[in-house]
Specification:
172 residues; three-stranded mixed sheet; 4 helices; 22% helix
């Protein structure tokens, strides 16, 4: 489903962006990216390969692979980056990296949430790695609807639901 462009609201009655499991921001300056980010994103180790990233993307909720060395973000890989990539190719060679700054795939924790949201919806981006001093501190995950961000509790609940379904074996 394509994202619709969301213009900045001039009144509080036009709705806002949801974050933090039900809070709303209606205008610039009301929240930061840190208020809305998932604080424990799944990370791939620096030793990950193209095959590991492909396997990571088998979960249809995963839209970006964050490759790190400890908490230092090395690269962000998206599905389209895997075209013509060998399974044994290092993941660190796949994602977009411009020097030490990842181009278009990161945002600072202190960035304004409203401005980030409007930018993300304008260009159709759903995931941004959240970084501070080169460290990955979170992941900003725009919901499929484009009207809000995923929260830790929602991600945890979805993971538990998947685990419960996998582990469900009918008793005879």
């Amino acid at each position: 489903m394509p994202l619709s462009r969301i213009e900045e609201s001039t009144t509080r009655n036009e709705g806002g962006v949801e974050f933090g499991g039900g809070r709303l921001a209606y205008a610039p300056g009301e929240a930061t990216v840190a208020d809305a980010m998932v604080r424990r994103p799944k990370l791939l180790a620096a030793t990950a390969t193209g095959g590991d990233v492909r396997e990571f993307f088998l979960d249809d909720h995963v839209h970006a692979a964050l490759v790190s060395d400890g908490d230092r973000l090395l690269t962000v890989v998206e599905r389209q980056d895997l075209i013509e990539v060998r399974d044994d190719e290092p993941a660190t060679a796949i994602g977009i990296l411009s020097g030490r700054i990842l181009s278009g795939r990161t945002v600072g924790a202190g960035a304004d949430l409203w401005s980030t949201w409007t930018s993300m919806t304008a260009v159709g981006v759903r995931r941004l790695a959240v970084v501070e001093d080169g460290r990955c501190v979170g992941l900003l995950c725009l919901k499929r609807s484009g009207r809000g961000f995923c929260c830790d509790a929602g991600v945890w609940a979805r993971a538990q639901e998947r685990n419960n379904h996998r582990g469900c074996v009918p008793q005879s």
